[in-house]
């Protein structure tokens, strides 16, 4: 994995001290800690991520990904961290136990394909449920995934301290003797004088009741069941005669039922195995991968799944009642001679419901010379059968007209909107059924608050939330200064004197949210925005004073022209040109933030104070002044807009900016003041100041003057 990608994120979660003892084996079918040099070797992987693992002086493998750490509210994977290898002469089943919380998964490295929570869980090697059988000389690469979504893991938490490799021998030579030698830092293995039991069909087992094939421990009934977290489920299995499931005499008029489900959650059928009328739209974000499956579709008869009704194995699997209708993973072992000439990857696990067969997405987990282990994810439990080579097709049609063949389809959309995906299921008789499913590609509502420019104490004002939401219908919730809330696009509120923050949050029916906050200064601080009242030079300028100034200017120009211009300038044309160029230069002038000084934060009043603010706009009238306060991460701490209305100078001493109540300035943390002056022509000047807290700022509840950032 790209190591640089791991440092992107707001929070880093520390993983420390992953200690993996290496070595010895246990030969009696039970499991124990594994120590050094007895047939199973651990070592750092080749490549950059192997640098996170090293062997210490005691022979322990230590993995430390404190740097770069992992992302907050995300699935972070570090591929190819260390390697496990069977250096002995017998098959060994290995797995890993550790004391990590649920956010950590160790899994077999995924070479290509999608890496997500589901694929990581499917390849987990945590606990006996994730055991892997290694033949002599075989090795696997181990990766680490940390899922911090909703885990409650905080920055700096140590999520895993110890990690132990465990093993058992699947098959030994008769007459083997002696326990394993003591490993570095641990005790010796226990001994055995006999060979490990084996089943009649030659498949390896670890005892009378259980064994392993490939990477999954299976019982004597050749079945294993796990939940979506990879935890083994206590299940019982009863053989079913495949002939009892044949229905050659059934009517040929039965048609399949096409069902589209979310690949991760299913839910396409109700408790009566009917298409679920309450199934909601599939909701996704722009560019998010959508995975759909047709494996809940129903084919009514065995003959319509396979004209020759070739069922090679059938079992009724029972789990605790509360798990009967929950998704899980089923693994079934099948003798290869039952498949005849069919390739194992062409076999399919089917589940029998009250209305027919569901052909589940099936993968080959592993195989030996005599048998193969098939795995499928099922939406529930009943009778399962392995079909040798079913003849049912699934054809998807995407919104752009593209067609895709297969059980599942993956797609994504680059624009918000409501799209339709269709699925056609065709059985071996050529009968088909089609269905559709809506995909809502949602956008986040955009909210802006309209409010009066001037508010006086005790005045009831109307606030309006303007919401843009391309997909969905958004509702608005207001968070008001007195702690109360209100709903609706508009709200009336009476303000008292002071600086207040109002927040509007819009949420649509699909869960997307957007918000805006408005800073409102009421009373003496409102005019000009300053606590002492800013002054706008030119505002309300008396007409008489204008006439006096204009008259004096004309008189001075007349005297200059009479006495100086004739002698200095042969023609008035150069003077006119010079005056015209001066006028044009004046028109090209931009606003100028002259002074922004003495910036501080009043913690008691939650106000940012600019001791002196001066702005000129001589080329055109100043239209507005925008003030933004942000922290080091770019989070907005306070905001203010001053609509000054076509004046040429703006002065305020002091200028107050109310802070957001839920975002106080952290002690000793820098913040940035950004001043943006915009004139009537939309020309602008932007000045930023970085405020560096003084050493005694925590004691007096304020933050001192900042340094210039521009």
From TrEMBL:
Domain of life: Archaea
PKD domain location: 389-441
Region ranges (Disordered): 170-277
Biased composition (Gly residues): 175-192
Residue stretches of biased makeup (Acidic residues): 223-241
Annotated Pfam families: PKD_4
Record InterPro entries: Ig-like_fold, PGF_pre_PGF, PKD/Chitinase_dom, PKD_dom, PKD_dom_sf
Protein name in UniProt: PKD domain-containing protein
Species for this entry: Halobaculum saliterrae
